[in-house]
Amino acid sequence: MSRTFDDARRWARLGTELMLEAAAGLDDDGYAAPSALPGWSRAHVAAHVAANAEALSNLVHWAATGEPTPMYASPEERAAGIERGRALLAGELTEWLRGSADALEKGMAALGEEQWRTRVVTAQGRTVPATEVPWLRSREVCVHAVDLGTGVSFADLPADFLAALCDDVVGKRSSAPGPALLLEATDTGPDSGTATRWELPGQGEPVRLTGPLHDLTAYLTGRDNGLTAADGTPAPTLAAWL
Ligand code: ZN
């Protein structure tokens, strides 16, 4: 199965809702608490997601006007966006999260078919059609809703999104050094329409890992997970994903 544009639009909306719901109850202390990402508070995560919406809105502007506007002017600008979260009061940060998400959604809703086909450049330097923007946003909001550490887990994300994310991460990891892996989801059948098996080329005999799709996804993206190898040993450590 491969993801469609409509899938990505749906996941981006759903992930945004999850993120906003997770953040809605946070006060200053709640935002100051650690997130699931090493060294980042929840405020860092929220600010990063808000700044990401603005950065992706730059790509939407590029698609709408043809005027090249990169996601971030510089790595420093990206870092400053994350730091900004710490200086804001809880209400302001939540409002930034909501407002930036609304503006991105509005911008995307206004793009015509021709504009969606505009070639834009991602923060990682890849040239892609603007139709990839909803997928980039889906990844951010869905994964960081979990990272926020308020109780959302990978098991709360739709199976078709998880499978698309596994496809994406396996594709990315295939071109980098790492252990050879064979990943098999135990909770998706041939009728479910989602992929159930991923092979990751790499060093050594492939290590076979089986588990629920949400655990495989958490593992591949470098998040906490319950996976062990078939012989009970811990799953091999992976390098950072992005
Ligand atoms: Zn991110």
Provide keyphrases for this structure:
single chain; 242 residues; mainly alpha; three-stranded mixed β-sheet; globular; binds zinc ion
Task: Give a written overview of the molecule.
The protein has two domains: 5-152, dinb family like domain (Four Helix Bundle (Hemerythrin (Met), subunit A)); 159-220, no CATH class. With 242 residues, the chain is mainly α. It has a three-stranded mixed beta sheet with strand order 4-3-5. It has helices at residues 5-24, 28-32, 42-65, 75-87, 90-109, 113-116, 133-147, 159-173, 213-220, and strands spanning 119-121, 127-129, 179-185, 197-200, 203-211. Zinc ion binds at residues 48, 140, 144.
Layout: helices, strands, pairs:
Elements: H1 5-24, H2 28-32, H3 42-65, H4 75-87, H5 90-109, H6 113-116, E1 119-121, E2 127-129, H7 133-147, H8 159-173, E3 179-185, E4 197-200, E5 203-211, H9 213-220
Parallel strand pairs: 3-5
Antiparallel strand pairs: 1-2, 3-4
The structure holds zinc ion.
In short:
This protein is mostly helical and 242 residues long.
Spatial extent as radius of gyration: 18 Å
Number of strands: 5
Bound molecules: zinc ion
Number of structurally distinct domains = 2
Share of residues in helices: 40-55%
Low-confidence stretches: none
**Mean pLDDT metric:** 93
How many alpha or pi helices?
A: 9
Strand order of the largest sheet: 4-3-5
Q: What percentage of amino acids are in beta strands?
A: 5-15%
The ordered H/E elements are HHHHHHEEHHEEEH
Protein structure class: mainly alpha
Q: Separation of termini? A: 23 Å
Shape: globular
Proper CATH architecture of the largest domain: Up-down Bundle
What is the H level of CATH, i.e. the homologous superfamily of the largest domain?
dinb family like domain
Oligomer: single chain
Broad CATH class of the largest domain? Mainly Alpha
